[in-house]
Design brief:
The chain is of the alpha/beta class. It contains eight helices and nine strands.
């Protein structure tokens, strides 16, 4: 029985994250340094080939796709966007210090959400439904290799939910431009909804 490989790649750097701001659905572009870093990575590392590319609708992901997969026309999926931090978008943890709701959210309460934003539960539910629909589509069309360019929070959460070996979200942290490859076997997926995380990407080019 054929298996399905999905490569998760985190978008390149943005200026706002480097300054410690919460940036979820705010549509900021890659920084100039972020673009240059991706171009260097593309020359010094080997990114996987693919039959299809899925991407978040936000600029930083679409621009990452253009740099790493210029020949591919990505399928843009709204539900691949990062968590919506609502009124906390663009603010730092220091600026939100003392906010009771923020403190509860920071402690990991899954049902607590930023004002006009998205709770951790809502975020997880959204991206899991999206991921399962992508996997279903890949199986129906026989697309055995694909790339998903999205956000760190999306990738870490999906791997924590579906990935083997089992690990917590922050165990799957990755740098910008990097990610993980997962292998899905239809029988295991249909029975247990699990995916084998088998390598980090991109890979270094051997001399």
């Amino acid at each position: 029985m054929k298996s399905y490989v999905i490569h998760f790649i985190r978008h390149g750097k943005i200026s706002e994250t480097l300054s410690g701001k919460y940036i979820g659905t705010t549509d900021v572009p890659l920084s100039e340094d972020g673009k240059k870093e991706l171009e260097i990575l593309d020359k010094t590392y080997k990114y996987p080939g693919t039959m299809a590319v899925f991407t978040s609708p936000l600029k930083r992901c679409i621009e990452t796709c253009r740099i790493l997969y210029p020949q591919q026309k990505p399928l843009i999926i709204d539900r691949l966007s990062e968590c919506n931090f609502g009124e906390w978008e663009g603010k730092t943890a220091e600026e939100l210090k003392g906010d009771e709701v923020f403190e509860k959210w920071l402690s990991g309460s899954p049902e607590v959400k930023p004002p006009r934003g998205e709770s951790n539960d809502d975020f997880t539910r959204r991206i899991c439904r999206m991921f399962e629909s992508i996997v279903e589509g890949l199986m129906k069309t026989g697309t055995t290799e694909s790339v998903i360019i999205t956000h760190g929070g999306v990738i870490m959460t999906l791997l924590a939910v579906y990935g083997l070996p089992q690990a917590k979200p922050f165990d799957w942290v990755m740098d910008n431009g990097f990610g993980y490859s997962v292998r899905i076997t239809p029988l295991l997926w249909q029975r247990d909804k699990v995916a084998e995380v088998y390598k980090k990407i991109p890979e270094e080019i051997e001399e």
